[in-house]
Amino acid sequence: MRIGVDATPLLGARTGVGWYTHELIGAVADQAPGDRLALLPISWRAARRPLDAPSRPNVSVVRLPLPARPLWALWDRTGLPPVEWLVRCDVFHATNFVAPPSRRVPMVVTVHDVGFLHHPETVSPAVRRMAALLPGVLRRAAAIIAVSGFTREELAGWLPEVTSKVTVVHNGSHARVAPTGAARAAAGAPYVLMLGTLEPRKNVPLALDALAILRARKVDLRLVLAGGSSPLLDVPALLRDRNLGEPEVTCTGYVDDGRASDLLAGARVVAFPSLYEGFGMPLVEAMEAGVPVVGVRAGATPETVGDAGLLVEPGDAEGFADALERAAFDEGTRADLIAAGHAQAQRFSWAKAGAATLAVYRQVSA
Question: DSSP letter string over 299-343?
């Protein structure tokens, strides 16, 4: 079987969908060595930009200068050019919501979440424009992959006519490089880690409010915000409003794989106050690493964490502060959370995701 994959998320700095695409390609390639995967990045600069693709004998890259925004507009209006003109394949996987038109090749589309429906103010105009194309894409898709049961239910409520085509395939974790121990050695005071792009739905204000409460209690716990910034969230203003800054709060900006691994290894707690999440790979990553998780009862977080984390209501700063303090310093609580986290993390792996996704490919291409 020849599998075409939208590899656009592999261009540039790797974030959530980029990790999904990279890890899934590697897992599918490993489990189907006789199949061929052709990666198609949709970008005018695809021929020149580096592509962070898994290195496998059965994985190749199709380098075509494809201007993304004009091409999506052309596809929406005319249905041309179909995917068959761009890449030779028996099935095509659209890894990031939207998909090119097809005349005969079955299309598999991954939906990570539909946060743009509930929180349109938290996404860019480009994402809102892409979201307008999604209903049509999903109606003509041969199969839809949802990364959680939560996302499947969100899709069922929004577009009930596509529900029968949805298969839940949970993500794995990031499988980062081994930590060096540098973060723990350099940190000094114990710290809470938030890992991921700082955007409005990540609920950074709740983490800051909880930290301010802990500082007022004289609890020596710092916060590290490790992730790129969004123009939709003014983090410096949030810090000024709460009279917080260094050394209580450290903003690292985007961190590469090695730095993220070190920060995770040195953390006492991973905070995940996100208001809306389709899965939450940092949660699995934390549980695998033996770091207790504190989150909120929102989105897919309860599904991903199960009973292995401390969860509070999304606006409960006092409760979030209490949970952070318990997870960081109560040794009995820590031991329970770490053990439960290891067990919960075993439910998720890219090997499982690759096998389930490959089964979807085979079903629609039969």
Answer: TTHHHHHTTSSEEE-TT-HHHHHHHHHHHHH-HHHHHHHHHHHHH
CA distance 344 to 237: 37
**Spatial distance between the Cα atoms of 263 and 284, rounded to a whole number of angstroms:** 15
CB-CB contact of 207 with 242 (8 Å) = no
On whether both 192 and 157 belong to a single domain, the answer is no
- Among residues 294, 301, 297, the alpha carbon closest in space to that of 278 is found at 301
In this structure, the answer to whether residues 52 and 86 fall within a common structural domain is: yes
What the block records as the tokens of 159 is 């577009």
On whether both 159 and 210 belong to a single domain, the answer is no
Same domain, 359 and 321: no
The CATH number of the domain holding residue 100 is 3.40.50.2000
Contact 16, 281 (CB under 8 A): yes
Residue-by-residue pLDDT tens, the chain, 366 positions: 999 999 999 987 777 899 999 999 999 999 999 999 999 998 887 667 788 889 999 999 998 888 888 888 888 888 899 999 999 999 999 999 889 999 999 999 999 999 888 888 777 777 777 778 899 999 999 999 999 999 999 999 999 999 999 999 999 987 666 666 655 544 568 999 999 889 899 999 999 999 999 999 999 999 999 998 888 889 999 999 999 988 899 999 988 888 889 999 999 999 999 999 999 999 999 999 999 999 999 999 999 999 999 999 999 999 999 999 999 999 999 999 999 999 999 999 999 999 999 999 999 998
Query: Contact, 337 vs 310, CB < 8 A?
Result: yes
Sequence-ordered alpha helix ranges (H) in 83-178: 115-118, 125-140, 149-158
Supply the range of the domain harboring residue 201. 182-345
Say yes or no: 52 and 94 in one domain.
yes
Claim: this prediction has a pTM higher than 0.85:
yes
Q: How many domains does the chain have?
A: 2
| Residues 254 and 360 grouped into a single domain | no
Whole-angstrom Cα Rg for the chain = 21
Same domain? 140 vs 215: no
